[in-house]
Amino acid sequence: MDTERGGRDPTKDDSPTENSQREEHLKRSQTVWDRWSDHYGLSEKDFEPIRERAIDRLALEPGDRVLEIGCGPGVNFERVRGEIGADGELVAVDYSPGMIANARERFEAHGWENVRVRRADATTVTFDEPFDAALAMLSLSVMPDIRRATETVHRSLVPGARVAVVDVRPVPSGPARVLNPLVWRFFRWYANSNPDGDVTESIAAVFDDFEIVDTAFAGTAYAAICTKRDAD
Fold first, then answer.
1. Which domains does the chain have, with CATH numbers?
2. Cα–Cα distance, 168 to 104 (Å, whole number)
3. Cβ atoms within 10 A of the Cβ of 83, count?
4. Residue 77 to residue 42: CA distance in whole angstroms
5. CA separation for the pair 106, 38 (Å, rounded)
6. What is the pLDDT of residues 174-210, one digit of tens each?
7. In this structure, what are the phi and psi dihedrals at residue 88, rounded to the nearest 5 degrees?
8. CA 62/CA 88 separation, integer angstroms
9. Cα 211 off chain centre by
């Protein structure tokens, strides 16, 4: 049984405690992100440059099938749709009903018939067909189980596929690190960030090639690119 490079067996049931903790986290996330679903414009604008540069590195092509984990209100849809064209497909998942509603409104307004949005928990969702690329923008750090969500992405890709991740972290170096306890509290309040998980650690453990390629906001925002190894 392939357990995603030493990770959890996806067919194995969680313990009652793990299920309870995941459900509690998802409930908080739904509350938080439903609250922000109509007020996402500031984040969309502030993070646009680093998001755009990360998507550049995916080198998407017409006809590609792309997965987006934690799509929010669909701020990346237009860019990705412009790369993959009418012959490609974008499948996006999010857990917040408010975000899902806004995402659907966005792609329906453009008449994009090859963009689909599902409400799902990224730690357990499955797909019928693999993807050529994936992106997770400001989403992995709020998952109830970051490692498991990362394994979901890995398992859902074709060999050789690339993933673009943009996320946030405490100040990585310098005197400003003294502010990190406050930074963590802000992340927890604003986004229900998971204090028990580490996005870069999970990515490095699951994917064969991983590199932080960009930073912003004194290093508290970063972009990473990872690749699923080609089949032997």
1. 16-227 (3.40.50.150)
2. 26
3. 19
4. 17
5. 12
6. 777 777 677 666 666 565 565 677 899 999 999 989 9
7. -90, -175
8. 6
9. 16
